[in-house]
Amino acid sequence: MADPYNPPQGQCRQCWAHAYDKSIHKALDGGECPPCLSHVGGCPDSMKVK
Ligand SMILES: [Zn+2]
Ligand SMILES: [Zn+2]
Questions:
Q1: Average pLDDT by consecutive 10-residue portion of the chain (50 residues)?
Q2: How far, in Å, CA of 49 to CA of 36, rounded?
Q3: C-alpha 2 to ligand 2 mean position (Å)
Q4: How far, in Å, is the centroid of ligand 2 from the Cα of 12?
């Protein structure tokens, strides 16, 4: 199983964590997730694993 905090090269750390650490979105209680929304148009290179 994927490690939420150890994404493979080229992946966005934030999006990876949100995809695999279900507790993050659970805490939103079904509401929208601002960090995910901010990456809808693309993830910043600074957050991708080099
Ligand atoms: Zn992202
Ligand atoms: Zn999210």
A1: 94 97 94 96 97
A2: 17
A3: 16
A4: 12
